[in-house]
Backbone:
């Protein structure tokens, strides 16, 4: 813009030495060249967007609508040249309609883009309205919701009423917006928003009394309309309305749209720039009118470009910048290092620690894209985005998971870059793990291998990088240790570097404890990991010693929520509860009961009521101890706790605890009532167990057994045993229950043994053996 102003002012300033006719020609040449150059750049942006439309880093920014946005900006720029041609009726007539229609399309595209991405990340097309409030922010959010709902309804409009009805029926039957809001829906919304402006400009061109025409006054050509400039007012309003709607739609809300896709600041800043320029140009235009053609056309062009160019730069160019880093694949600091220059010799975009701020920003934006793909269930694209981020920090510009990072690359990482690389690898491990349950055979094995390798690489890179010593907050690596432990307990991970699994577990927990020794609640998590691994390796006395250490520093009111937010579960609280099972196994029943009472009184009230999995893992050890030590009375207390905190709140909710809720409730109901009498719903429970359907996902059963020391199939088998005892010996259902119980016990046994047949979970196995023995005794009387 500054370049345009300087050149045009120079052109205008030298006009005194040139004839008027040559003056106009020179000005038009300069203006045409400059506007043409700007338009070419805008069209180039559109071409790049179309070319990279399938790039995962750009796909969620919707490159096709963005390219149309840039094209409309280029057309508006070119049409500015018509301000310098007032002697032609055509130029006078068409410049206003084209500019206003292009601006309206640009604004409508911004509205449609934001509406579509908000819908994709929301469960339904219609957004819930907030309750009435006098709060200003709440009122703005209510306006935003109404706009979103209105756009959702507009997207269903079709030309044919019959097709519209059919579409509405289809939309009502579908539950997920992700398959509803297509690019066609978005373009339909955009087109509908443009229609009022289009109709207005058609009227403008059709009515001679409204249409601008060229007239000559005192030898000067100018554009004139019989009704004056009053017709411009509705055109301006219709052109600006979509931009104000886009502002409101992009306001930060409770929706899942990440900040990287919000365009609120870009639109607002463009409006501010344009307002500042208009404050200068409009008074001058009003004073000069069209009497000085060169100045008038320059001022009008500047006014329009002051709005269009900032939008194209901040919305289109910044999106392209993300993929440029990935396309070139080489950081400036790495290039300097490989060419022999020190990495500290950096430009203003690099920090003194060797971190490229521009690359870090691109990585942050790409990470937001990856998270959106994961939220949408497109894990493969999320993994590809992870690789694209990691490629930004590779010397050759390409990250290969088999190769990882070289030692030289790790040593060159700055502190902030180290944080990005480590956190991305941990996220990548989680993305690979999410694919495990969707794959089979070799593909599943590959997912397991990649998930493990990404997590191990993250821990290894953090320990090898000298930049870690400059970090004030080392918590970025803590989720890696915790997640590695979860992978180990899933049963799919083998110890690396020739270590035994027990050695690997001990090494991992010790490294985690060393890293967290100065971070209190993180240290609680690392200690719980140590206790967990000790329990898995049957070192119960050592595990109980670690639990005592946890009790000295763990404060449920202060730490429970913070740990659950950071690590998904309050592991210290859960393992304090699990220690009751260790005590029960060691025949220290009074101590086990004391732990149960303490957990119920101090830890249970601090747990999030929505965390059904955490509550289940917390209560299951207490339930087993009460069943083993207090019989029917203990079962009644256990049933009351489980029903209040887990079963009733989670009855109609999806949760990883769903598989255990019904089996455990059947068992507790059966154990808490007199064995001589039937209980309400007993026949329904028997029918549910004998329906022949497998009720448990294999992975869920494996993980639950290792966490809770009680197998879900064992719980079902024990429920079969309790129900069978209530039936007469000649009853067919009794024998069916006993046979089903034995079958379920056989399914449970492999979860408690290794491939060699050795028992690996003695506590869970002891519960299993007791139930299986009694089942066999009842089905074949001695």
Residues:
């Amino acid at each position: 813009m500054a370049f345009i102003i300087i050149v045009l002012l120079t052109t205008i300033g030298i006009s005194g030495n040139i004839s008027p006719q040559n003056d106009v020609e020179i000005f038009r040449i300069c203006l045409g060249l400059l506007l043409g150059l700007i338009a070419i750049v805008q069209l180039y942006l559109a071409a790049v967007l179309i070319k990279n439309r399938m790039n995962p880093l750009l796909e969620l920014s919707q490159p096709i609508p963005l390219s149309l946005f840039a094209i409309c900006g280029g057309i508006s720029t070119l049409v500015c040249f018509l301000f310098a041609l007032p002697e032609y009726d055509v130029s006078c007539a068409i410049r206003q309609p084209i500019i206003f229609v292009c601006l309206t399309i640009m604004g409508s595209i911004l509205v449609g883009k934001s509406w579509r991405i908000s819908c994709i990340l929301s469960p339904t097309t219609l957004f819930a309205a907030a309750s009435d409030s006098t709060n200003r922010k709440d009122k703005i959010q209510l306006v935003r919701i109404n706009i979103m709902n209105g756009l959702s309804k507009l997207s269903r409009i079709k030309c044919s009423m019959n097709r519209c009805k059919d579409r509405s029926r289809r939309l009502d039957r579908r539950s997920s917006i992700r398959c509803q809001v297509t690019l066609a829906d978005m373009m339909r919304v955009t087109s509908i928003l443009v229609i009022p402006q289009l109709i207005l400009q058609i009227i403008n061109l059709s009515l001679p009394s409204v249409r601008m025409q060229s007239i000559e006054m005192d030898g000067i050509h100018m554009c004139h309309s019989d009704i004056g400039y009053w017709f411009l007012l509705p055109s301006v309003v219709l052109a600006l309305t979509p931009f104000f709607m886009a502002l409101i739609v992009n306001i930060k809300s409770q929706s899942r749209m990440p900040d990287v896709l919000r365009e609120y600041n870009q639109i607002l800043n463009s409006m501010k720039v344009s307002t500042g320029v208009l404050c200068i140009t409009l008074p001058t235009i009003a004073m000069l009118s069209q009497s000085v053609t060169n100045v008038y056309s320059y001022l009008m062009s500047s006014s329009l470009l002051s709005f269009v160019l900032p939008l194209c730069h901040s919305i289109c160019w910044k999106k392209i910048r993300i993929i440029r880093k990935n396309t070139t694949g080489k950081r400036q600091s790495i290039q300097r290092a490989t060419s022999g220059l020190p990495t500290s010799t950096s430009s203003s975009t690099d920090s003194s620690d060797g971190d490229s701020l521009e690359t870090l920003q691109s990585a942050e934006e790409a990470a937001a894209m990856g998270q959106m793909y994961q939220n949408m269930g497109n894990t493969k694209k999320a993994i590809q985005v992870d690789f694209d981020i990691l490629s930004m920090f590779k010397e050759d510009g390409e990250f290969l998971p088999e190769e990882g990072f070289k030692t030289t690359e790790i040593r060159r990482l700055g502190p902030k870059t180290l944080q990005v690389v480590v956190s991305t690898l941990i996220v990548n491990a989680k993305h690979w793990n999410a694919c495990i349950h969707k794959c089979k055979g070799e593909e599943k094995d590959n997912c397991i291998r990649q998930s493990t390798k990404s997590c191990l690489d993250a821990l290894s890179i953090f320990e090898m990088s000298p930049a870690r010593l400059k970090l004030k907050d080392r918590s970025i690596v803590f989720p890696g240790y915790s997640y590695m432990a979860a992978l180990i307990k899933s049963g799919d991970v083998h110890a690396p570097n020739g270590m035994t699994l027990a050695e690997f577990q001990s090494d991992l927990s010790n490294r985690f404890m060393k890293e967290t020794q100065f971070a209190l609640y993180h240290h609680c998590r690392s200690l719980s990991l140590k206790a967990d691994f000790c329990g898995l390796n049957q070192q119960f006395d050592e595990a109980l010693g670690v639990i005592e250490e946890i009790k000295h520093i763990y404060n449920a009111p202060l730490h429970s929520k913070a740990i659950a937010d950071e690590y998904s579960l309050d592991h210290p609280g859960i393992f304090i509860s699990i220690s009751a099972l260790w005590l029960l196994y060691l025949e220290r029943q009074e101590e086990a009961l004391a732990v149960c009472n303490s957990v119920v009184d101090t830890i249970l009230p601090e747990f999030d009521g929505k965390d059904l999995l955490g509550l289940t893992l917390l209560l299951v050890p207490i339930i087993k101890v009460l069943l083993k030590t207090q019989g029917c009375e203990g079962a009644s207390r256990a049933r009351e706790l489980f029903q209040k905190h887990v079963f009733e709140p989670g009855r109609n909710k999806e949760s990883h605890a769903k598989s255990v809720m019904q089996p455990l409730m059947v068992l507790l109901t059966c154990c808490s009532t007199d064995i001589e009498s039937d209980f309400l719903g007993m026949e329904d429970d028997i029918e549910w167990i004998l329906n022949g359907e497998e009720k448990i996902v294999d992975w869920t059963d494996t993980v639950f057994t290792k966490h809770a020391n009680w197998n879900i199939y064992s719980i079902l088998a024990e429920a079969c045993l309790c129900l069978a005892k209530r039936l007469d010996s000649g009853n067919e259902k009794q024998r069916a229950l006993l046979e089903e119980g034995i079958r379920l016990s056989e399914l449970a046994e492999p979860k408690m043994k290794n491939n060699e047949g050795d028992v690996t979970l003695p506590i869970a196995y002891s519960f299993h053996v007791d139930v299986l023995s009694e089942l066999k005794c009842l089905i074949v009387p001695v």
User: Anything to note?
Assistant: The chain has 31 helices and two strands.
